[in-house]
């Protein structure tokens, strides 16, 4: 992957724009080749960029097939950064809009990203997404309200 991210927040901006553009190659440029992901959707975990590429390609294809515009926002972002390691935790909201711009639905996940700087560029080496679970019914809570 050839993208260069001199700041940790550059990684998040690239993530956001790549999702909105449904650009798999640009999206994957935010990740290290040995990425390890704990996801709250479908797969318990994902190891390596090839496995992650398959999942992302399927995700973006589903969005394309549905014909919605997917917008991403990051809230409550906290960055802890050292010289070559950084952690980010935040809320990530994915909102689906129709072609006229009307919001159809949204979900918010909690994310933790572990990043490593190599050759002066940040890359995500670990990602963990989660949802709180309702004690009453055992279902995921998809929004902060």
What's the number of structural domains?
1
H/E series, N to C? HHEEHEEEE
**What topology, given as strand order, has the largest sheet?**
2-1-6-5-4-3
- CATH architecture group name: Roll
Q: Regarding CATH, which class?
A: Alpha Beta
Protein name: SnoaL-like domain-containing protein
Pfam family, one: SnoaL_3
Organism: Pullulanibacillus pueri
Domain SnoaL-like: 8-133
Task: Give an overview of the whole structure.
The chain is of the alpha+beta class. The protein has one domain: Roll (Nuclear Transport Factor 2, Chain: A). Helix content is 26%, strand content 43%. The protein contains three helices and six strands. It has helices at 8-21, 24-28, 49-66, and strands at 31-38, 45-47, 69-81, 85-97, 103-118, 121-130. It is globular.
Short description:
By secondary structure, the protein is of the alpha+beta class. The chain has helices at residues 8-21, 24-28, 49-66; strands at residues 31-38, 45-47, 69-81, 85-97, 103-118, 121-130.
């Amino acid at each position: 992957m050839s993208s260069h991210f001199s700041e940790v927040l550059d990684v998040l901006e690239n993530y956001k724009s790549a999702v909105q553009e449904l650009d798999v190659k640009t999206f994957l440029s935010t990740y290290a080749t040995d990425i390890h992901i704990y996801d709250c959707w479908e797969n318990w975990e994902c190891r390596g960029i090839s496995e992650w590429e398959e999942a992302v390609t399927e995700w973006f294809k589903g969005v394309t097939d549905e014909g919605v515009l997917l917008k991403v926002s990051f809230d409550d972002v906290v960055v802890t950064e050292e010289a070559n390691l950084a952690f980010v935790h935040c809320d990530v909201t994915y909102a689906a809009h129709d072609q006229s711009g009307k919001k159809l639905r949204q979900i918010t996940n909690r994310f933790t990203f572990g990043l490593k700087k190599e050759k002066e560029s940040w890359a995500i080496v670990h990602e963990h997404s989660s949802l709180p679970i309702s004690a009453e019914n055992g279902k995921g809570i998809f929004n902060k309200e």
